[in-house]
Design brief:
Chain lengths: ~220, ~400
């Protein structure tokens, strides 16, 4: 999957003032790259990832998915791209609290209408791969934060996405767990040839990324 | 699965919501079923005398076909009524309410004793059969009676057993095989016996007048009143329409109140569901936003909320119906003195299956409608909205 943005801009109205969260961003994601977007809180990282992940609409500018203008996509088409071609990892994990680890991983496959047996087999394999083979039937509240993020990563991989969009995936984790999660994301990127975009403060991610972008006041710059 | 798990996650709230709906449904079912039973029973009293004229004392209050309060008539009036050309037949009846029975009957039930000349039983009972082994008293019998099934069951009275009423030994020749609230509590005996036992010599409560075929019933009633009214005996002759016109406005009003109360309960339960749906979905905006980010369709998210709400409505209405049926049975049994098990046998005449089905359908539909706005609102939540609010 190739994602390209052209002068991507997002402006929020906050009371009487206007805040430019993303300002004329030109950005490109090639297949199987590991990209880090680094910036302080409020710099526009999350907004940029939401726009790229088709979870939000830009105020101006374009997003191209495989050279197709995303603004021309219907809501249903955007939803299908999110469901089948993208995987999301959130800072606060966003697992369904009433479902256990296995069911959380099965969820995207269920939404994609895959057979129950296939869902179960894939979920078991993914949870095994992220080291949670013995925590299958635990609910999120029974898991540690690191385990929850592993479940979230397994969930993101459920429909074999071409890209994983991770918004501060280590933000809530201690350094040791954060390192494990970073290693996991790298492993996925290298083994599965899945592109990964990570918004982060984490220097370890920054050091290992194929490309590093910095974002400040909504403006994105290639750092290295 | 997510929906039902969520209901279990908030057990107390789900239970309260289901209880609220169950209470509303129970009240609706109970009120509707009991009032319907009573209005049906009251209307049903008239069916045996349809087309007939009831001659009663002017001071008598007649509830449909039952003379419930007021003066009686001198028995000889029957001969005068018979003398009117358009009258085909007459049957005198003596009604005695709430009689205290002693002897074999240890309890003091509310019952109705009806005295009528032997041979005229069917005026009262229509085609109601007698239970196996029973027979109608012979024409010249004085101490033989027929009783209703309810009295027989409550007091365990068998055919050919003897009971004592006010010192008189009476043989039960038959038991009416009926579930009618009135006939089930009726003791039918020869008129002379009733007059003697209850000390109403030469007295009757009413005379049932069967007009000849083809004649104008209103005119016959007017003729009876014209002929029999005099300074000594003041009577009134009531046709079916006149009897109905006395009670129908009252029954219609009861039904209106019934409908009004049902609507109030219905609206209350829908409000409960809406509030709970609002609270449930507002707490789970993040979950729905995550589903949106993962690619869940708008319809699937709306259906999730509606399934939860519909399930609450379904479970609440089923429990409410169950409780409503029990409450109805207890109320009917209490007020009619029909044993609970007998009311249960005949439960679907008191609580029609159609009413139950309608209640479930209305409640589930109303729950879904009530949950629609919260469902649509939450289904539109995107992860960008949630994260924007958080950061």
């Amino acid at each position: 999957m190739e994602i390209k943005t052209v002068n991507l801009t997002k402006v929020y109205r906050l009371g009487s003032s206007m805040i430019t969260a993303v300002n004329k961003v030109n950005f490109e994601v090639d297949e199987a790259k590991f990209i880090a977007v680094v910036g302080p809180s409020g710099s526009g990282k999350t907004t940029l990832l939401n726009l790229i992940g088709l979870n939000d609409y830009p105020t101006s500018g374009e997003i191209f998915i495989d050279d197709k203008d995303a603004s021309l996509l219907s809501g249903s088409e955007r939803r299908k791209i999110r469901l089948l071609r993208m995987g999301f990892v959130f800072q606060t994990f966003n697992l369904m609290p009433t479902l256990n680890a296995l069911e959380n991983v099965e969820l995207p496959m269920a939404l994609a209408g895959k057979p129950q047996r296939e869902q179960r087999e894939k979920a078991l394999r993914l949870l095994g791969a992220v080291g949670l083979g013995k925590r299958l039937f635990h609910r999120p509240k029974e898991l540690s934060m690191g385990e929850m993020q592993r479940v979230a990563i397994a969930r993101a991989l459920a429909n074999n996405p071409e890209i994983i969009i991770a918004d501060e995936p280590t933000g809530e984790l201690d350094s040791k767990t954060a390192e494990e999660i970073i290693s996991l994301l790298f492993e996925i990127n290298r083994k599965e040839k899945t592109a990964v975009i990570v918004a982060t403060h984490d220097e370890k991610i920054v050091r290992l990324a194929d490309a590093i972008y910095t974002i400040q006041d909504g403006e994105l710059r290639l750092k290295g | 699965m997510v929906c039902l798990r969520n209901l279990l996650r908030r057990k107390a709230r789900t239970t309260l919501c289901i209880a609220g709906i169950a209470l509303a449904v129970m009240s609706t079912v109970t009120i509707t079923a009991t009032t319907t039973s009573y209005t049906t029973a009251i209307r049903g009293m008239n069916t045996l005398f349809t087309g007939d004229i009831l001659v009663v004392s002017k001071s008598q209050i007649v509830l449909q076909a039952l003379p419930i309060s007021g003066g009686n008539l001198i028995e000889t009036i029957e001969e005068e009524v018979k003398g009117i050309p358009e009258v085909e037949a007459t049957v005198p009846l003596l009604f005695v309410f709430s009689t205290e029975l002693r002897g074999t009957l240890e309890m003091v039930p509310i019952n109705i004793t009806v005295g009528t000349p032997p041979g005229n039983w069917t005026v009262l009972t229509g085609s109601t059969p007698l239970r196996a082994g029973g027979k109608w008293p012979s024409m010249n019998a004085v101490d033989e009676i027929v009783i209703g099934s309810c009295l027989a069951d409550v007091h365990d009275i068998a055919v050919n057993s003897t009971i004592k009423i006010k010192g008189h030994d009476l043989t039960v020749r038959g038991v009416l095989d009926t579930r009618s609230a009135i006939l089930g509590r009726t003791i039918i005996m020869p008129l002379k016996t009733a007059q003697e036992i209850y000390h109403y010599p030469m007295t009757v409560s009413m005379i049932v007048v069967k007009p000849e075929e083809g004649v104008n019933v209103e005119e016959v009633a007017d003729r009876i009143e014209g002929k029999l009214n005099n300074p000594v005996e003041r009577i009134k002759a009531l046709t079916s329409d006149q009897r109905n016109s006395l009670i129908d406005p009252l029954l219609d009003e009861v039904n209106m109140w019934n409908l009004g109360i049902s609507i109030v309960f219905f609206v209350t339960s829908v409000t409960i569901v809406t509030l709970v749906a609002m609270i449930n979905v507002s707490e789970r905006r993040r979950d729905f936003a995550t589903l949106d980010a993962l690619g869940a369709s708008f319809t699937s998210k709306v259906l999730m909320v509606l399934t939860e709400i519909g399930f609450i409505g379904l479970l609440g209405s089923v429990i409410g119906i169950f409780l409503g049926v029990i409450a109805t049975v207890i109320i009917i049994s209490f007020y009619t003195y029909i044993p609970i098990q007998m009311v249960f046998f005949d439960i679907f005449s008191a609580v029609p299956p159609l009413l139950l089905a309608e209640t479930v359908i209305y409640m589930v539909t109303a729950s879904c409608v009530a949950g629609l706005i919260p469902a649509i609102t939450v289904a539109r939540t995107s992860i960008a909205d949630i994260l924007k609010a958080e950061y």
